[in-house]
């Protein structure tokens, strides 16, 4: 339920795709499973979640906090997807909320589970001649894990303690912590 900002940036090189200048593009956000093992059963996993949480959504846009988004939509049948239009030449920030936690999809349900990693994936499209947003422009994603506040604090503390025990050589294998995350382009 916590709102997280994702800044939408026009990362075209100079002169690239001039046909979208002055036009809107559509971005579709999805929360999906990161582990391939769970990707195979994603539909059943999401149906089970829907059954246990009737009326709830996995992903929402915090519309009052968002800037520059046009026509935000959440399809009632796709609990893990939201979409909106935006102008790449203007400042655009979308605040998303994930309403499920990583441990809701683990087998054991009695605390202390690692929780499954999710992936936030953003696919962006431009309009075709018929006015439909079907021409793929770009995809990017990043891995996330979602916990309740107390669980998240505990996880960060244990992760920090584990890192402190590692040798400098072992620490080199891990990415340092940053205030912001740059999403990785998906090809």
Q: How many strand elements?
A: 9
**Rounded mean pLDDT score:** 89
Our Rg estimate from Cα atoms comes to 19 Å
Structural class assignment: alpha+beta
Main pleated-sheet profile: 6 strands, antiparallel
Total count of domains: 1
- Number of helical segments with 4 or more residues: 4
Note poorly predicted spans: none
Strand order of the largest sheet: 4-5-2-7-8-9
> In angstroms, what separates the terminal alpha carbons?
30 Å
Task: Fill in the keyword field for this structure.
alpha+beta; 3-stranded antiparallel β-sheet; 6-stranded antiparallel β-sheet; single chain; 187 residues; globular
Task: Give a short synopsis of this structure.
By secondary structure, this protein is α+β, with helices and mostly antiparallel strands. It has helices spanning 36-39, 42-52, 149-165, 168-171, and strands spanning 3-8, 25-33, 59-61, 69-73, 81-86, 92-98, 118-127, 133-144, 184-185.
Task: Give the topology, please.
Blueprint: E1 3-8, E2 25-33, H1 36-39, H2 42-52, E3 59-61, E4 69-73, E5 81-86, E6 92-98, E7 118-127, E8 133-144, H3 149-165, H4 168-171, E9 184-185
Antiparallel strand pairs: 1-6, 2-5, 2-7, 3-6, 4-5, 7-8, 8-9
């Amino acid at each position: 339920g916590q709102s997280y900002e994702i800044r939408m940036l026009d990362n075209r090189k100079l002169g690239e795709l001039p046909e979208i200048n002055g036009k809107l593009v559509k971005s579709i956000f999805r929360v999906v499973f990161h582990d391939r093992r769970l990707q195979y059963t994603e539909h059943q996993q999401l149906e089970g979640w829907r059954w246990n949480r009737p009326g709830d959504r996995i992903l929402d846009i915090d519309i009052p906090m968002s800037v520059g988004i046009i026509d935000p939509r959440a399809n009632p049948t796709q609990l893990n997807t939201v979409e909106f239009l935006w102008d790449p030449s203007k400042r655009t920030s979308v605040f998303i909320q994930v309403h499920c936690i990583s441990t809701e999809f683990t087998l054991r349900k009695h605390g202390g589970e690692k929780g499954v990693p999710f992936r936030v994936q953003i696919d962006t499209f431009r309009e075709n001649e018929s006015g439909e947003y079907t021409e793929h422009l770009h995809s990017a994603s990043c891995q996330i894990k979602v916990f309740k506040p107390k669980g998240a604090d505990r996880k960060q503390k244990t992760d920090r303690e584990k890192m402190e025990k590692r040798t400098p050589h072992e620490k080199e294998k891990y990415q340092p912590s940053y205030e912001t995350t740059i999403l990785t382009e998906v090809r």
